Each structure stands twice: as structure tokens, then as C-alpha cells.
Amino acid sequence: MSGEVTTTAYALLLDFERRAVGHRAEAPEAQTGPAMWRGLCYGVSGVEAVSSIGEIAEILVPPALTYVPGARPWLLGIANLRGTLLTVVDLGQFLFGRPTVREDRNRVLVVRQRGAAATGLLVDSVLGQRGFEEGAAIEAEGVVDNDMLPYVPFAFSDAAGEQFWPVLSLPTLLRAQTFLDAAA
């Protein structure tokens, strides 16, 4: 009797294998939706901004800082980030002249550029990732604070046109002469 059960179970397994090998999964249909621009949204001095996800290397809880004598007030100091120096800048104070209120939700966006040391930008909070339709980009002038305008090539708006997301170009910001002149 047990020989029949074994043969039957074996035959059943062979049948499963034959059907599995014979079954071919169809390739998923190509999705043809609008091209999406991906960004990281964050708050800076009460403004909700976004930067390309590719421009931000990592997000940190604000690290311990060493004061830099003779620096502008927006240059908060230098941090040790796993054995490398990280210059930390108060983005709100740099852009708007208002120091960031220190809270638990503050974060530092780490930006790395080829041939330059990493820079950390202190922001009010990180709001998360967001995708925008590439075709929905709008002119930044008129919807963006003038202090941000030199660093904002374009903006996005919600479907109702009630909220605007200025796209802060971090490479443009880090190359700006006013940013590089950190000595007081």
C-alpha cells in the first residue's frame, strides 16, 4: 500500500514540475505614464522646498559641532562624520537671515560634490520623498522668495495651484560665491 502512495505522491510532484516548466509567465506590459522627477521635501525657515533626491547623500540627526572662529553666523561648525570633516551650515540663516529653531525634528542634509568636502545643511525637518510630473515644472520667479531665487531653477505646484514647491539646486547653492565666502 505504501508503494502506491509513494508512487502517487511522486507522480503528483512530477505533474507539478511538468506544469510549472510548461507555464511561462507573461512579461509585464510596459507602463507608459508621465516621466517623474523625484525629490526630497524639507522645511527651511517655514518654506517647504524640495531638492533632487540624487543631490542628497544622506540625512542625519544634527551632530555635535566644533565652532569655527571668524566664520559667518550661518556656518555652524565642523562635525566628525565617520572620520571625515563635515561643514554644517544653517540653511535657513544663510538663505533668509533667520536662524533655525533647534528642535528634535531638525535634520542635516549631507551633500557631496566632486572635488569638494562634504557639506551638511541644517533644515527644520525632512518631510519625505515626493514625485512630480516632469512636465508640471513652472517658472520659479513670482512663486519663490527672492532670497531663494538665485538657487531655484524651477518649481512645482500641486494640482490646484495652491502650494508651490521651489526646487532648490544644491550644487548651484554650494558653488555660489556668497556661500563660499564663509569668513566673517
The CATH H-level homologous superfamily: CheA-289, Domain 4
Structural class: alpha+beta
Query: Which architecture name does CATH use?
Result: Beta Barrel
Distinct helical segment count: 4
Helix and strand succession? HEEEEEHEEEEEHH
According to DSSP, the number of beta strands is 10
CATH fold-level topology: OB fold (Dihydrolipoamide Acetyltransferase, E2P)
CATH C-level class is Mainly Beta
Number of self-contained structural domains: 1
Tell me, rounded to a whole number, the average pLDDT.
88
Poorly predicted runs are none
Strand order of the largest sheet: 3-6-7-5-4
Termini separation: 93 Å
Q: What is the approximate shape?
A: elongated
Strand content: 25-35%
Provide the helix percentage: 10-25%
Pfam families: CheW
Organism: Pseudofulvimonas gallinarii
Protein name: Twitching motility protein PilI
InterPro entries: CheW, CheW-like_dom_sf, CheW-lke_dom
